[in-house]
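not sure who needs this but someone in the group chat was asking about Phosphoribosylamine--glycine ligase from Trichormus variabilis SAG 1403-4b so here u go. i didnt clean anything up, its just raw.
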Amino acid sequence: MKVLVVGNGGREHALAWKLLQSKKIEQIVCVPGNGGTASMECCQNIPLAVDDFEGISKLALEKDISVVVVGPEVPLAMGITDYLQSKGLMVFGPSKAGAQIEASKAWAKALMQEAGIPTAKAAVFTEATAAKSYIKSQGAPIVVKADGLAAGKGVTVAQTLAEAEDAIDAIFQGQFGSAGNFVVIEECLLGQEVSVLALTDGLTIRPLLPAQDHKRIGDGDTGDNTGGMGAYAPAPIATPELMARVQIEVLEKAIALLRTKGIDYRGVLYAGLMVSADGDFKVLEFNCRFGDPETQVILPLLETPLEDLILACIQQRLAEMPPIAWKKGAAATVVAASGGYPGEYEKGQVIAGIKEAEASGAKVFHAGTKLNEPQQILTDGGRVLNVTGLGENFQQAIAQAYAGIKHIHFSGVYYRRDIGHRVLSPKS
């Protein structure tokens, strides 16, 4: 098999890495890929934009690609699956209609409410005055979200009314582009967030291991929201009992309602949950793709060949597959970010220590990197590297990730020192 992976982040490097572990995979083509995918055997980067559907289609047909796996949400929301399928290609990822579940928080909220999926109380607004009037009636803390895609940065958990009003102004004044045409305002839920990524063929849906992301830039979960500064799996707060409820009350309800709406959803359905102190949960959001950096801790623990699961979803035979098999133990990843992220940051910094990090036992997934001749890796994004550790338990996995990241050096490098603090100190 030849597989084309669309995207250039840590998630896509992890997907390519995992697929290449199979003897069935002859070659991976990454569009556009990054410094990590450029450095792997049997993997080729092609510098096409993720929204160049015509170029990707021609490339896939020229290279006799068996399956296209779409990583990021933006091309999915733009309809890449529909376009490539119209050219006779097999694609892993939902259609444009299905991708609305991430592309519009308002649409997803309405779907959850119609399906009876437990979720936070919310209201949707198209102008600032009404939105501000609503938050005054509700009080703080309160959550303000840009409706559309904002690279994980369009959410403000406002602790005061003034902070909420500033967030509303920022969204309607265009900080997040077209994502700010609507504002979704939600009640603020307390607890721990859990990411439940599930694979579906539109009829059957099977969850992967639950993971916990660390979205805030600073230690102690402080500062601005980011695309994710680290993660670990399996998240112990998502007990077998809770996961059984999520299967029935969230995943199966969502797929059933999508089907009744005529949406044939095949790919990843990712439910972001808030789990309260008493073990109950509500859905914060849905995403239409593999999580990043959750993928970088889930795939290293996956035993079942990834390509078998992907093909089962595309060919609508997931129900025939045996239970998904997992390695024992735990995984943790720490993100090495550019100084200034999630705000402005410099690109083009020389990265040192990747080989040393991997020699220490960690796996380094590239995110915002590029390969510069001669064989020099440079920073090319806000989240630069994901240093992943494995172990028999969380202590070992986290220790291995941090032992690895200590070798990473580039100008302005920043990473959190407390990834996994909740499993190391459960009361935190």
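also The chain has four domains: 2-95, 127-181, 192-320, 330-424. if thats useful
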